[in-house]
Every structure is written in structure tokens, then in C-alpha cells.
């Protein structure tokens, strides 16, 4: 029994030992497998990390070499120190040198020279701040101001509207479907010049003594440059007592730089059946012309005819505005034009005019014999192309300006632009600036831009200039009366920097058909000086009104022959003369850039004959078939024109917005 009991205890012991060995072996196997797994995955990770590190190092070295070799990358700056006396501050190749002689404007008197000196001094200070890196301190609030606060709606009471100078700011303009509602009341008619009520006169209106009651509502464009009159994108003028016709009338029009378009007059007659419509609506609705007819009787007769079962009943509505009577006016933006409804009834529709985009309508004004109760603008866009450079500037090498060659170029194309015209410059880069002659540097295109009053715009402008390499900054504070300085800068760059054979001046809303006018320019022998554009002869300065030119500014009775500003071409010897006269402090400056050029060419013509070449194909307003240049073209129109020019042999216009 004892022996049997001892054998049982020995068997149990052996069982325990066996189980312990099995567990030990299992643990060892598990640890070994874990080690193998770690070893297997660690080696590829090590080699991958090392390879990636080496590749990144090589890429960084390559990029560093590119930064050293390429003049067109974002942070590349081309030093001009070697061209300056030792000790002068460093400047860069995208800055115009017309003010290298700081006394260049100090030897002449007159309003424009005083304005120019002040703008140059202020611009010098702003540019030095940009160079020194002070722009790094721009706050988030400043950046948001650049992008622009784009509210979905804007509303003002009548008192708020009066307090803001009778102007409603629409920060980012309008878009398709936007609408503005005005609640107001026309004042009682009064004799012009009397003390009853506020007498309001249209510019250029005749003398007093007439009984009037009229007001003007206008959509106005952004004032991009100090001193420049904002364009009147839509001019809506109800005249309750009529004008020369003696009957109530509504006039609609547009105006840009004192040039009015063809007016649309709604005088109570419905537009003809064969006349084009706007989004399916007639341009002018009919209203009853005889104000003595009893309105209630007319409405009662209309309802009686309707109840009698007549299928076709024509409503005989009165003029939509009445003295001392409240109205609700709604202005809406459609596909083809603006539509005006008053008290729920369609009154007029006005087709979009070439050169004016919906996003340009950044302000609304109401002036004249009207008391405004409230204004609401709704369904507004969320961004504006000129305020959102990061949205509209495509930082792609495709659009970078090609490197300049040492040899002379055939033509410099200088384009006047404003600091915040990011969308306009991008449209030019993506269209006519892609021409093979520009990509090969046979022709050179550059934007000439002055400094903007908003610091954050200048920061973005400087970055844009550094990246694309096609912007020349003229270091003065932009002002419409000083646009002539940009023209001088174009001549200086064409003569001293690129030694161009010909020099062309254009605007950033000008589409250029290079092949067409180059053929004409090449027909002129090299030894002949020429001035080629849409010429004006025997024009006289306006002596009265908002755009008046004083005798101090222009003492002569006539302007010299001059080409319209949106596009013209000079031979290089004329440009050399202009630069020389400017550097010798003898160049006369005038606030109208195109007239100034005509004056300078006329002075050169007294020493060497100049051939004046005229062509209407340098379009002053809009576009014509077979154009050399098309003016007032929106970015969308520029893209459309380029597509047509590539696909068709004959240049055709785009009338879409």
C-alpha cells in the first residue's frame, strides 16, 4: 500500500515537471517569434528611412540650386547692387528706376508735379517698409480685409443711409441672382433753385425755373485708384415731371471716365415686338401717359373686363413713381441684364454692357428728390476676384514669364494695372501672353503697377511680382492723375532694360491680337519714326463740369493729335526722347496719359518727322470684328477671346459677361 502510494506521488511530480517544461518551451517559442517579427520589419524600415532621408537631402540640394539659378521662382530677388554706387540701398529688378534721380520731379511747378512729389515720397516710405520686412507684422485682421468681408446681405435704414453719405457699400459686388430692394418716397415737385426741398441737378443740366421731381439710382464700380471717378455700371433715372418731352420718363445708361453709352429711354411705350429682350423680358413696359385719368376708375374697368370673361385684358398701369407716395423698387441681376420691378410689377430691363462685370458693382447710390426709408441687398457673392489673390492667382510655372535674352527684343508691351487687379493680370497671363512670340522672348510683356494705399495689397503684389517675374512696380502711391508716370516707366524700361525696337502701351482689361497689328507695324521701315493707334484730331479740353481741365493745367484751346489710351505703338526713338526729356527734368506732364503721349510725340515731330498711323481696330470701347485690341474685357471675356482666336483665323468678339 505504501509502495503504491509513493508511486502516485512520483507520477504527479513528473506531470508537473512536464507541464513546466512545456510552458517554458512555449514562452521561448513566443519570444523567438516576436523577435523574428521585429527583426523582419525593422530592417526595411531602417533602409526606407535612410533612403528617404537621402532622397530628401538630394531634393533639397536640387531646389537650392534652382533657387540660385532661376530668376523666376517665388522668393528669387535679382539684385541691382552692381548697377548702383556703393552704399546705396538694395533694390530689385521688378522695381522701375524712373525715380533713381530723386530730384527728377523737383524742378517743375504745377498741381500735377506737386501731387507727383507727394505720391513719390509716400511711395518711397511704403516700399522701404516692404523691403525691410515690416509686412511680416500684418495681422490676421489685415489679411481678412484684403480677402474682403463678403456678407451674404447688407441692410441699412434711411437714417444710416444718410449718415453714410447716401452710399451703400456692397463689398464684393453682385452675382447672378443678387437683388437690391429700395423702399422710398419721391418728394413733391419743386421749382429748380427754390428753397422748397433739396434741388438736385444732373451734370450738364440747363438753367433753373423748371418744375422738377426726379432722382437717380446708380450701381457704381470700385474706386481702385485715388482720384479716379468710379464707373457708373447702371444709371437709373426716373423723371416724374419729364424732361424735354414734358412726359414722365425713365432713362437707363452706363458711364465710364466721362463717356456715356447709348441711353435706354422708357417713355410709356412698350418695346417693339421685334426688339431684343433681356432674359425674355422687354426692355420697357407700357404705362398710362395721361396722368389726369382716374386711377381707381381704370383699375375698376380692368377688373370688370376680367370678370366678364375676356381672355385678353391689357392692364393700363400709371407711371410707377408718384410724388409723396411710397414705392418698393427691386433691382435684380439676371443672365443677360438688370431687371427693375416697382411695387411687384416689371418696369424695365437693361442688358449688360461690355466691360462691366457684376462683381464690379461694389456700391449703390441714390441722389435727388427722394427720401429713402430702407435698402436691403441680398444673395451677394462670397468672394471678389480682385480681393482674393490666393483664389485667383495660379502659382504654376506655366504662367511664369520667360527669361529675358541678351539680344534686343522686337517689342515691349507695357500694361497699366492697379495693385488689386489680381484677376485681370491672371487673365492676361493665361490668354494673349501665352503667344509663342512672348514665350520665346521675341516680344516682352510687363505689367506696370504703382503702390496701393492698402498695405496688405502691396504685400501680395510684391509676392506676385517675385513669382511671375512680369510686374514692374513704379514706387509711388497710385493716383489716377499720375497714370502718366507709369507710361514714362514703360518707355524707360523699353529703352534701358530690354532695348525694344517698338514699344506698345495697353491696359489690363485690353485683349491684344498680336499677329494682326504686328504685321502692320512691320510694314514701316526701320528708319521711320511712327505713332500707331486710334487717333483723335482737333479734340478740345472740357472747361466745365466734373471732368473740367483748367487753363493752368492745359492753356491751349486744342489737344494735339493723340491715340486712345487702351492701345497704341511707338517706335523706340520716340521713347528714347521721352526718357531723355524726363531725366533732364524737361518733360511736361499732364493728367491725361494719352493726351500727354500725343503732346510728347508732337514735340519729337518738330525735330524729326513722325508717321501717324490710324486704325479703328484699336477699339476704345468694347470689341469689333477683326480687332487689333479689344477694350473693357472682363477676365471671362479674355478667356473667351483667346479660345476663339486659337480656333478661328478671324478674330471675333465675345459679348458674354
Automatic annotation (TrEMBL):
- Any idea where the Galectin domain is? 166-378
This protein's GO cellular component annotations are: Golgi membrane
Subcellular localization, per the record? Golgi apparatus membrane
Q: Report the coiled-coil segments.
A: none
Membrane protein topology class: Single-pass type II membrane protein
Q: Which family does it belong to?
A: Belongs to the glycosyltransferase 31 family.
Which GO terms fall under molecular function for this chain's record? carbohydrate binding; hydroxyproline O-galactosyltransferase activity
Identify the pathway: Protein modification; protein glycosylation
The highest taxon in the source lineage is: Eukaryota
Enumerate the PANTHER family for this protein.
Answer: BETA-1,3-N-ACETYLGLUCOSAMINYLTRANSFERASE, HYDROXYPROLINE O-GALACTOSYLTRANSFERASE GALT4
Q: Which cofactor does it need?
A: Mn(2+)
What CDD domains does the record tag this protein with? GLECT
Annotated organism of origin: Arachis hypogaea
UniProt keywords (A-Z) are: Glycosyltransferase, Golgi apparatus, Manganese, Membrane, Signal-anchor, Transferase, Transmembrane, Transmembrane helix
Query: Gene3D superfamilies annotated for this entry?
Result: 2.60.120.200, 3.90.550.50
Main subcellular localisation: Golgi
GO BP terms in the entry: carbohydrate derivative biosynthetic process
The keyword Protein transport is assigned to this record: no
Q: Which residues cross the membrane?
A: 27-48
What is the official name of this protein in its record?
A: Galectin domain-containing protein
Give the InterPro entries listed for this entry: ConA-like_dom_sf, Galectin_CRD, Glyco_trans_31
Amino acid at each position: 500500500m505504501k509502495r503504491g502510494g509513493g508511486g502516485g506521488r512520483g507520477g504527479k511530480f513528473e506531470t508537473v515537471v512536464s507541464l513546466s517544461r512545456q510552458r517554458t518551451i512555449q514562452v521561448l517559442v513566443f519570444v523567438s517569434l516576436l523577435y523574428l517579427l521585429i527583426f523582419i520589419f525593422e530592417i526595411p524600415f531602417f533602409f526606407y528611412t535612410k533612403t528617404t532621408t537621402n532622397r530628401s537631402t538630394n531634393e533639397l540640394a536640387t531646389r537650392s540650386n534652382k533657387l540660385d539659378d532661376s530668376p523666376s521662382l517665388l522668393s528669387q530677388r535679382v539684385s541691382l547692387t552692381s548697377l548702383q554706387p556703393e552704399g546705396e540701398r538694395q533694390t530689385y529688378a521688378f522695381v522701375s528706376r524712373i525715380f533713381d534721380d530723386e530730384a527728377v520731379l523737383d524742378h517743375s511747378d504745377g498741381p500735377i508735379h506737386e501731387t507727383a512729389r507727394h505720391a513719390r515720397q509716400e511711395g518711397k516710405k511704403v516700399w522701404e517698409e516692404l523691403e525691410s520686412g515690416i509686412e511680416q507684422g500684418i495681422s490676421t485682421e489685415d489679411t481678412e480685409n484684403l480677402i474682403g468681408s463678403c456678407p451674404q446681405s447688407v441692410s441699412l435704414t434711411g437714417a444710416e443711409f444718410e449718415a453714410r453719405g447716401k452710399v451703400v457699400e456692397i463689398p464684393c459686388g453682385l452675382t447672378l441672382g443678387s437683388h437690391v430692394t429700395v423702399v422710398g418716397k419721391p418728394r413733391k415737385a419743386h421749382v429748380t433753385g427754390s428753397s422748397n426741398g433739396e434741388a438736385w441737378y444732373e451734370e450738364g443740366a440747363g438753367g433753373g425755373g423748371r418744375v422738377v421731381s426726379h432722382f437717380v439710382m446708380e450701381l457704381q464700380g470700385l474706386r481702385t485708384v485715388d482720384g479716379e471717378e468710379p464707373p457708373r455700371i447702371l444709371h437709373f433715372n426716373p423723371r416724374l415731371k419729364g424732361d424735354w418731352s414734358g412726359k414722365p420718363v425713365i432713362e437707363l445708361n452706363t458711364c465710364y471716365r466721362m463717356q456715356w453709352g447709348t441711353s435706354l429711354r422708357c417713355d410709356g411705350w412698350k418695346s417693339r415686338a421685334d426688339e431684343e429682350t433681356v432674359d425674355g423680358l422687354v426692355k420697357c413696359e407700357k404705362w398710362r401717359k395721361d396722368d389726369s385719368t382716374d386711377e381707381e376708375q381704370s383699375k375698376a374697368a380692368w377688373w370688370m373686363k376680367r370678370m366678364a370673361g375676356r381672355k385678353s385684358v391689357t392692364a393700363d398701369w400709371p407711371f410707377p413713381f408718384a410724388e409723396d407716395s411710397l414705392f418698393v423698387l427691386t433691382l435684380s441681376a439676371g443672365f443677360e441684364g438688370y431687371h427693375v420691378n416697382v411695387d411687384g410689377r416689371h418696369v424695365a430691363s437693361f442688358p449688360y454692357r461690355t466691360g462691366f462685370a457684376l462683381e464690379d458693382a461694389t456700391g449703390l447710390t441714390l441722389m435727388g428728390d427722394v427720401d429713402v426709408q430702407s435698402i436691403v441687398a441680398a444673395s451677394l457673392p462670397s468672394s471678389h476676384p480682385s480681393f482674393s489673390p490666393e483664389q485667383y492667382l495660379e502659382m504654376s510655372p506655366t504662367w511664369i514669364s520667360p527669361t529675358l535674352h541678351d539680344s534686343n527684343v522686337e517689342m515691349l508691351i507695357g500694361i497699366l494695372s492697379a495693385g488689386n487687379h489680381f484677376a485681370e493680370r491672371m487673365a492676361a497671363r493665361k490668354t494673349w501672353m501665352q503667344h509663342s512670340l512672348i514665350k520665346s522672348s521675341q516680344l516682352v510683356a510687363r505689367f506696370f503697377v504703382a503702390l496701393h494705399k492698402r498695405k496688405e495689397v502691396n504685400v501680395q503684389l510684391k509676392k506676385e511680382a517675385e513669382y511671375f517675374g512680369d510686374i514692374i512696380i513704379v514706387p509711388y502711391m497710385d493716383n489716377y492723375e499720375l497714370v502718366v508716370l507709369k507710361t514714362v516707366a514703360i518707355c524707360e524700361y523699353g529703352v534701358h532694360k530690354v532695348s525694344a525696337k517698338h514699344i506698345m502701351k495697353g491696359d489690363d482689361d485690353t485683349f491684344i491680337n498680336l499677329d494682326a497689328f504686328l504685321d502692320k507695324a512691320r510694314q514701316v521701315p526701320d528708319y521711320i519714326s511712327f505713332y500707331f493707334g486710334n487717333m483723335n484730331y482737333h479734340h478740345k479740353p472740357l472747361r466745365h463740369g466734373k471732368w473740367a481741365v483748367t487753363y493752368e493745367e492745359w492753356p491751349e484751346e486744342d489737344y494735339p493729335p493723340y491715340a486712345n489710351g487702351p492701345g497704341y505703338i511707338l517706335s523706340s526713338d520716340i521713347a528714347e526722347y521721352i526718357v531723355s526729356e524726363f531725366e533732364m527734368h524737361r518733360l511736361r506732364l499732364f493728367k491725361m496719359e494719352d493726351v500727354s503721349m500725343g503732346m510728347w510725340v508732337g514735340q519729337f515731330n518738330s525735330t524729326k518727322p513722325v508717321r501717324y498711323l490710324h486704325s479703328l481696330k484699336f477699339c476704345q470701347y468694347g470689341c469689333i470684328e477683326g480687332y487689333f485690341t479689344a477694350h473693357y474685357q472682363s477676365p471671362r471675356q479674355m478667356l473667351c477671346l483667346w479660345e476663339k482666336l486659337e480656333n478661328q483665323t478671324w478674330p471675333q468678339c465675345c459679348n458674354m459677361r
